[in-house]
Design brief:
Chain A: It is found in: Cell membrane. Chain A: Residues 60-177, 526-627 form the ABC3 transporter permease C-terminal domain. Chain A: It is a multi-pass membrane protein. The complex is a heterodimer. By secondary structure, chain A is α+β, with helices and mostly antiparallel strands. Chain A is 68% helix and 9% strand. In chain A, strands 1-9-2-4-8-5-7-6-3 form a 9-stranded mixed sheet, sandwiched between helices. The radius of gyration of chain A is 32 Å and the shape is elongated. Chain A starts with a helix and ends with a helix. Chain B has 8 helices and 10 strands. The longest helix of chain B is centred in the last third of the chain and has 17 residues, at 177-193. Chain B is of the alpha/beta class. Chain B has one domain: P-loop containing nucleotide triphosphate hydrolases (Rossmann fold, 3-Layer(aba) Sandwich). The chains are: A alpha+beta, B alpha/beta. The A-B interface holds A 190-194, 263-264, 267-273, 276-277, 279-280, 553, 556-566 and B 55, 57, 77-78, 80-86, 88, 90, 96-101, 105, 108-113, 115, 117-118, 121-122, 141-143, 157. The structure holds adenosine-5'-diphosphate and magnesium ion (MG). Residues 14, 21, 23, 41, 43-49 of chain B line the site of adenosine-5'-diphosphate.
Chain lengths: 641, 255
């Protein structure tokens, strides 16, 4: 028998073990291929506005993907090799030289890698078109995707994965040399002691977890700095990682031991067997569980946050650029030129149009505010109310005399209490003028421009100041179906130029946000899926190794009168624990992290993250359920023959 | 007196067409309540096969088995599991203890599976712990105790549910002579005082001499039977040796 045919036989024989690994590997190849194809596709690039960003992001995420896949493949391989120590030992006894055995394992790995690669690329070319369509749909483009086979992507995928496969094959080759023959026969240690747990480390674990949650969840002080944030959340992150590890290492062991105290529950049916099996295994799984819980927490959080951004894009675009079009008046000729363009668009008829005079003036506040206010921009209350009405907003102001209202500067969390009882002093040509800041309103009426410090003043005061400081006039238009006004927006943008830090037209801002969010959503989504698949597959291996070691155990149980059905039920319960525990911890972590993110990232302030979080969690649970079902089935087939 | 085991025309054929091997030809066997029956024979005679069939772990190719008045050949896997749990106790050469459980938990297992209430369950453990002298090691794990202690643990587990029949396959096979004697004394006690019915496979004449009756199997058939009667154990032991040498091939198995 040649080495090749022996290797081939081995793959067939171990197919159960390899299958899930194989599927996961193929899946990550498909995703990598898709990323590469999108990165190189001229067609897609042309149809979207963020093509440079997109190219860059796909480049970066491909690298992340590759690093992750490399770790996954390496881990899985060392796992396979260790699992097969005994087999290797047997070959050695039969007189095969280490070199020959190592070569055989090398071929096995190589063969499997190449088969996976071929399938991965075939599926990749088929599926990447579908994935590209998803991306284009998410971005809100209407363009047809003409997305053929990408030679560049194929070459890139082949090269990258061949390197990984070769590298891991060599690792496998070297692993054999490090085995000592005597060890090979003790690969499955018998009678390992049940883990002892020191209550101290369990307590430390709980304290660290609670502490890190507290650090993450406590509100930011008003005068927080980046340094504060780095310190606070750096510590929180460290505590979370160590706490999670201790949780799996000690706290769960401790809880399981505690559950043994309740004899009437513990000595009932197969509970005894399950608890002791889990106790016996949990130490060895602690590190894997930690990695999985943290990884799934990160994936859910990022996915949730991005999805939240995507979900709320229209709302935040509307906050950044309230009117469909806004521009600084530059004389009747220019203004009517712009107006003609807007009027010419039959698809998007004008609903409202008005002029917003704004006075820009230096001013000082009666108190210390951590925000740059100059030049202060004044708007008359009557104009503000008209604009609010045109935008279908409820919030209006009514001001008399020296009363004034601050419009909450974007990206801040100031409240009315911040300004209550304070005043702003404006430097006019003829002396200064003090206004009382009695109110605060949310929602500007002009596009964002830093510093974003607008003060609404009464009609009379505005008229009075306007006599000394000539106001600038902005023309604003609100049109129907503004989310689709692409052509007109482009024309207006060209003519108007850079009146604001953001775009003059709502559509442009909306579209930019949507594409950016769609892109991150797409990338996180697929990266997340690969992470998930890989972690699911690792749990699967762990469980199967365990199943193989526990066949004797279950045989004894069957002999002394446990039915196959009860064994199946017991396998289900244990697998549920093994899949459910890290997932639950991951979900808890991600809820805390998302809460933090949604408070911190201003785009997400006030966004309801419920739908995105639930979606992300649901996807996680569905995928894990598939791996869980796979595991239970194979496990059961092994122990319940 | 009640009949505990009644096996009729048990046949067991291994393998499929073209390559069949008949492990049990045609075995009839009856065991009465309170008997301590030994099954002897050379290696490969079919002793384990017979015991496993009686234990409902294996199925006969043909034949009927009635244990405690119940025909076990017609039962489903589910029913058989419950039957084994409630009616049978097992002892194996390699102990068959679960290494993730303490000695106490191993012993309790059959009762826990039967969902007996904790008070009663703890009372029973207390009882058998003395019978087999394992009280001091109850909290230990199997890897922490000796082979003799392991087998006594297994024996405790076998009897804790007061089974109608205790089945033992070479229970002394892996033990030193002191531990073997201890175990056999315990089994004898159990048989004499508690009227436990025991069926024990062995190829060791010394172990067989503890039985009331010994069946000899050769090539899948019952070769002969020896009843202890009023004989002393020493005399019975010599008698067993005689039969073994007549049987041929088995003599070298004797210690
Ligand atoms: N599962 C099996 N498949 C095929 N042959 C078997 C099987 N189990 C036992 N045998 C054969 O049946 C015969 C009796 O075996 P066994 O009952 O184990 O003998 P022993 O009397 O030593 O316990 C032996 O020849 C053995 O090789
Ligand atoms: Mg045998």
């Amino acid at each position: 028998m040649t080495l090749f045919s022996l290797a081939k036989k081995n793959i067939k024989g171990n197919f159960n073990h390899y299958f899930v690994y194989f599927v996961t590997l193929v899946f990550s190849m498909v995703i990598y291929y898709t990323f590469a194809a999108l990165q190189h596709s001229e067609n897609i690039q042309e149809s979207i506005e963020l093509s440079d960003t997109m190219r860059f992001m796909f480049g970066v995420s491909s690298v992340i993907l590759i690093l992750f896949v490399a770790v996954f493949v390496l881990y899985s391989n060392s796992f396979f090799t260790r699992k097969r120590k005994k087999e290797v030992g047997l070959y050695a006894i039969l007189g095969l030289r280490k070199k020959t055995i190592a070569k055989m394992l090398f071929y096995e790995n190589l063969m499997m890698g190449i088969i996976a690669l071929v399938i991965g690329i075939i599926l990749g070319t088929l599926l990447s078109k579908l994935f590209a369509m998803i991306l284009v749909k998410l971005m809100g483009s209407t363009t047809e995707v003409d997305f053929g086979i990408s030679a560049m992507a194929i070459i890139q995928t082949v090269i990258v994965f061949m390197v990984i496969i070769l590298f891991t094959s060599v690792q496998g080759y070297r692993l054999i040399y490090r085995f000592k023959l005597i060890e090979l026969f003790h690969a499955e240690k018998k009678g390992e002691p049940i883990p002892k747990v020191s209550p101290i480390s369990a307590v430390i674990g709980v304290v660290l977890l609670v502490g890190s949650y507290w650090l993450i969840l406590r509100p930011l002080p008003d005068d927080w700095t980046t340094e504060y944030l780095l310190r606070n959340d750096g510590v929180a992150f460290l505590a979370l990682v160590i706490g999670t590890h201790l949780f799996f290492r000690s706290v769960t062991v401790y809880l399981l031991k505690l559950s043994q105290r309740n004899k009437s529950r513990y000595y009932r049916g197969t509970k005894l067997i399950e608890t002791s099996q889990l106790l016996y295994r949990i130490r060895g799984n602690a590190r894997t569980f930690t990695v999985i819980a943290l990884l799934s927490a990160a994936t859910i959080s990022f996915f949730g946050a991005t999805y939240g951004g995507y979900y709320s894009n229209e709302k935040s675009a509307k906050e950044v650029v309230p009117f469909s079009y806004s521009f600084l008046s530059k004389g009747p000729e220019f203004d009517s030129q712009v107006e003609n363009i807007i009027e010419a668009d039959d698809q998007h008829p004008i609903q409202a149009q008005l002029e917003i005079p704004v006075i820009q003036i230096e001013g000082t506040l009666s108190f210390q505010l951590d925000y740059d206010i100059n030049p202060v921009k004044l708007i008359s209350a009557s104009t503000f109310n008209q604009a609010a009405k045109a935008l279908n907003r409820d919030e209006t102001v009514s001001l008399t005399g020296d009363e004034a209202a601050v419009i909450q500067p974007r990206f801040t969390e100031y409240t009315e209490a911040t300004f209550k009882g304070e005043s702003v002093t404006l430097q006019l040509d003829r002396g200064s003028r003090q206004l009382r800041l009695d109110h605060m309103v949310e929602g500007n009426v002009l596009p964002f421009d830093y510093p974003d410090f607008y003060v609404v003043v009464s009609h009379d005061v505005f008229a009075e100041i306007a006599r000394q400081e000539a106001p600038l006039t902005y023309n604003v238009y609100e049109v129907e179906n503004e989310t689709t006004a692409q052509a007109t927006s482009e024309k207006v943008n060209k003519l108007v130029g850079n009146d604001f830090q953001v775009s003059s037209s709502f559509y442009t801002e909306y579209k930019k946000g949507k594409e950016g969010n769609a892109l991150t959503l797409f990338i996180y989504g697929f990266l997340g899926l690969v992470f998930l698949a890989a972690t699911g597959s690792i749990i699967y291996f762990k469980q199967l190794t365990e199943a193989n070691e526990a066949t004797g155990h279950y045989e004894i149980l069957r002999k002394i009168g446990v039915s196959k059905r009860d064994i199946r039920r017991s396998v289900k319960k244990q697998s549920l624990f093994v899949f459910g525990l890290p997932l639950t911890v991951g979900i808890l972590h991600s809820c805390v992290i998302l809460y933090f993110i949604s408070n911190f990232i201003s785009d997400l302030i006030g966004v309801n993250l419920m739908v995105p979080i639930l979606t992300a969690i649901a996807v996680f649970i569905i995928i894990y359920t598939v791996y869980y079902a796979w595991t239970v089935n194979t496990y059961n087939r092994i122990v319940n023959r | 007196m009640k009949t505990v085991v009644e096996a009729k025309q048990i046949k067991k054929v291994y393998g499929s067409k073209g390559n069949v091997f008949s492990a049990l030809e045609d075995i009839d066997l009856t065991v009465m309540e309170g008997e301590f029956v030994g099954i002897m024979g050379p290696s490969g005679a079919g002793k384990t096969t017979l015991l496993n069939i009686l234990a409902t772990i294996d199925e006969p190719t043909s034949g009927d088995i009635v244990i405690d008045g119940i025909n076990v050949t017609k039962m489903t896997e589910e029913q058989l599991s419950a039957f084994r749990r409630d009616k049978l106790g097992f002892l194996f050469q390699d102990y068959h203890l679960l290494d993730t459980l303490t000695v106490e938990e191993n012993v309790i297992l059959p009762l826990a599976l039967a969902k007996m209430n904790v008070k009663e369950l703890e009372r029973r453990v207390d009882e058998v712990a003395d019978t087999f002298g394992i009280r001091d090691i109850l909290k230990k794990y199997p890897y922490q105790i000796s082979g003799g202690q392991k087998q006594r643990t297994a024996a405790s587990r076998a009897i804790i549910s007061n089974p109608s029949l205790i089945l033992a396959d070479e229970p002394t096979g892996a033990l030193d002579s002191k531990s073997a004697t201890d175990l056999l004394e315990c089994l004898k006690d159990l048989n004499e005082h508690d009227k436990a019915t025991i069926l024990m496979v062995t190829h060791d004449a010394y172990a067989a001499s503890y039985c009331n009756r010994v069946l000899f199997i050769k090539d899948g058939n019952i070769f002969t039977e020896l009843v202890k009667g009023e004989r002393s154990r020493k005399a019975f032991f010599n008698k067993v040796l005689d039969v073994l040498s007549a049987l041929g091939g088995g003599a070298h198995d004797v210690i």
